[in-house]
Amino acid sequence: MLMFLGIKLEGWLTIAAIVTGPILALLIQRWQDRRREDDKRRRLIFQQLLLTLKVPMAPRHVDAINSVPLEFYSDKGIFEAWRLYSSHLNDKVLLKNNSQRWGEKKSELLIDLAYKIGNSLGYDHLDKATLKDNIYVPQGYEDQETQFQALRTTLLQVLKGERPIPVTMLGPVQIEEPLKPAEELLTPAQQALLAPPTADTTE
Fold it and tell me: Contact 9/1 with Cβ under 8 angstroms?
């Protein structure tokens, strides 16, 4: 019978189990807690994607898309789908030349990304057709986004001087004195620039 310091092998194994048991239990508990937290974050990302599939300008959608490479980096299929989607979003050439095709491809890549994330989380019943056609978004949300885009575009055009601001005069307008001709409103330096060139009389 093997003995060390007067203690048999079975005794040393018992002591080792008593010492290492709680440590191993703590490590296993922490590992399980971390897995639960990871799963919770991933499911939250998927939920945000589902809620904003048709409103991609929503801040939650942007946050979810930017969180994908952080939470799903170990899944090559999801990471590749995210890379293709994010690369397409930055394809300014296609957006400028064919915005309709850009939008169609954007929707296809987003649905593919959401499908792969859902599949990895066990939502096998959510196929691509379901994600594309059966996600409910109130018409008001879509109208809001369309109006926001139109307002943003118009405002930028006005600020760049590419679009005038229409003004409508209502009611009588009283002017105390006649308006000065446009040339009188210019500074002397501006008037000199606009003045016609004088003929050179010197020979």
Answer: yes
Structure tokens at 131: 């994600």
Half-sphere exposure (Cβ direction) of 70: Cα atoms closer than 13 Å? 9
User: Per this entry, what is the length of the chain?
Assistant: 203
**Cβ pair 53, 111 in contact under 8 A:** yes
Structure tokens at 157: 């055009």
| pLDDT tens per residue across span 24-58 | 777 777 777 677 888 899 999 999 888 888 877 78
How many helices (H) and strands (E) in the chain? 8, 2
Distance CA 127, CA 133 (A): 10
Domain regions of the chain by residue span? 46-155
Please tell me the distance from the alpha carbon of residue 84 to that of residue 104, in angstroms, as a whole number: 14
Q: Residue 15 and residue 69: Cα distance in Å, rounded?
A: 45
